Amino acid sequence: MKAKKYPLNQCALYKCNSKRRLEKTLTIEQGQLKLIDSVIKYSHFEIDKKDSTEKRQITAPKYTLKQIQRRILRLIQFIERPEWVIAGTKEKSYIDNGEFHLKSNYALMVDIKKFYDNCKREYVYRFFRDKMLNSPDVAEILTDIVTYEGGVPTGCPTSQLIAYYAYEDMFANIKRIADNYGCLFSLYVDDMTFSSEKPFNKDVLKREIDIELRRYQHKPKYKKVKYYSKNDPKPITGTIVTKDNTLVAPNKLQEKVYKGFQDIKNLDIDDNSEETIKKIAALQGRIQASRNIEKNKKFPEIERITKQISTEHSGSVPANPPKKSRKRPRKIRIIK
User: Fold this and answer.
1) C-alpha distances in angstroms, 265 versus 34, 283, 308, 310, 319?
2) What pLDDT is attached to residue 41?
3) For the CA atoms of the chain, what is the radius of gyration?
């Protein structure tokens, strides 16, 4: 069942102009907001970048701050957004981004360089003050909660949508540019895809996008700006749009399925190590991802054998947890 969307002016944060009301809206215990500075704490770590030897720096909120950010996310994630905004929208995934361009024959991909790092605090503050119509003091507090060291942190539950709303005007301008060239436009975090059934002037379009991004102190990741013509397979956020206008799983994902299967098919039956369990779960996840993209029973024999292996390795496939009942959010207590 699709979640109901509402206009921005129906959001509980809209025109929130007192700290008392903000405490109530964020389910923070009364009088605790004055301690908010004491919970704005983060941990820092690195993870591997996908299909790369490089590392990605993650700045993740500590427990209490994350609770408050999750509450903000619940309040803003059901605001109505244009259909071309894919990431951060419930019931939409990277597969929807590929399907959005399925009928196109030509495509231009533009990534924004270090998007989160260059999302300035001032733009986040303007969103709360000028779009949410919060009072300056409330806008300041909300901005403090979702930003860190002048920017948008990478590891926060709010980051995808806050980054979009901070630069909503920029993306709306880019959409108008795409329209001028007869292109479909979709946004997946910092990945922008422009496509059309007919050829378009890619060089002029690239230049206009570059100019618009720089107006907001952003710029493209030039080495990842790619153009694909009619006979090229078009890689769009983890999917491939073929020259026949069908959606298929990328070769890299399929290779990982085959490699993962080779890794587990000769496992010792008594090997129930955590590493083994993770390998089986990862393989099952990749099989399912391939099926989700292609909407079919892909890798049936590999799946059958993998399921048999997972049964032999007790505990490798956890039972589906019971669904959590929806409860009223508990009051958040800030402990200094």
Assistant:
1) 57, 11, 10, 10, 22
2) 93
3) 23
Residue-by-residue DSSP string for 77-136: TTB---TTB-TT-TT--HHHHHHHTTT-SEEEEEEBTTTTTT--HHHHHHIIIIIS---H
Whether residue 270 contacts residue 225, with contact meaning beta carbons closer than 8 Å, is answered with: no
The Cα 294–Cα 311 span in angstroms is: 26
Nearest to 119 by CA among 200, 59, 207: 59
Q: How many helices (H) and strands (E) does the chain have?
A: 11, 9
Burial class (CB in 10 A: 0-12, 13-18, 19+), 101: buried
Q: Which of 253, 243, 237, 207 is nearest to 92 (CA)?
A: 237
Instruction: Supply φ then ψ for residue 31, to 5 degrees.
Output: 85, -5
Q: Which residues of 24-63 are buried (b: 16+ CB within 10 A; e: fewer)?
A: ebbebeeebbeebeebbebeeeeeeeeeeeeeeeebebee
Which has the closest alpha carbon to 314: 277, 261, 264? Answer: 277
CB-count burial class (<10 Å; 0-12, 13-18, 19+) for 308 = exposed
H/E run at residue 59: strand 55-61
For helices 159-166 and 168-180, angle between their N-to-C axes, nearest 10 degrees? 70
Distance from C-alpha of 93 to C-alpha of 95, rounded to nearest angstrom: 5
What are the C-alpha distances in Å from 22 to residues 27, 32, 78, 198, 219?
8, 11, 19, 50, 35
- Total Cβ atoms within 10 A of residue 129: 17
pLDDT at 26: 95
User: What is the tens place of the pLDDT at every residue in 270-286?
Assistant: 677 888 888 899 999 99
What's the confidence (pLDDT) of residue 319?
46
**In this structure, are residues 23 and 29 in contact, taking their beta carbons and an 8 Å threshold?**
yes
Low-confidence ranges of the chain (pLDDT < 50): 316-319
Largest CA distance in the chain: 63
Q: Are 297 and 291 in contact (CB under 8 A)?
A: yes
